[in-house]
Amino acid sequence: MQTATKVRKQFLLDPDKITMVRKITHAATDTEAINKALDMIIANEKIQKALAAVKGKGKIDDVFGRVSA
Predict the structure, then answer these.
(1) Across the chain, where does the E strand assignment appear?
(2) How many whole angstroms separate alpha carbon 25 and alpha carbon 33?
(3) Which stretch of DSSP H or E encloses residue 23?
(4) What is the three-class DSSP state of 60?
(5) Within 13 Å and on the Cβ side, how many CA atoms surround 54?
């Protein structure tokens, strides 16, 4: 298994948002919470692209109006 390269970054972030993300993701640390949030955003983008690719094909209805392509 390949290990991902890590980089150190400095950000000014809202502590209330980090606390909320930690609760939502059940993360033990701020770093873990941020990584999980980034993973969710990346996964969501892949889902959106997949939905856009099949939009109009077959009987899939965009009942929530979330896909715009």
Answers:
(1) none
(2) 6
(3) helix 15-25
(4) coil
(5) 10
Residue 4 pLDDT greater than 70, yes or no:
yes
**pTM for this prediction:** 0.70
Q: Which residue has tokens 């996964």?
A: 43
Could you give the angle at which helices 15-25 and 30-54 cross, rounded to 10 degrees? Answer: 70
Kindly state the DSSP code that residue 65 receives in the 8-state scheme. Answer: -
Cβ neighbors of 60 (< 8 A, separation 6 or more) are 51, 54
Tens of pLDDT, residue by residue over 57-67, are: 776 677 887 76
- Evaluate if residue 49 carries a pLDDT over 80: yes
Could you tell me the two tokens for 50?
């997949």
Mean pLDDT value across residues 47-65: 80
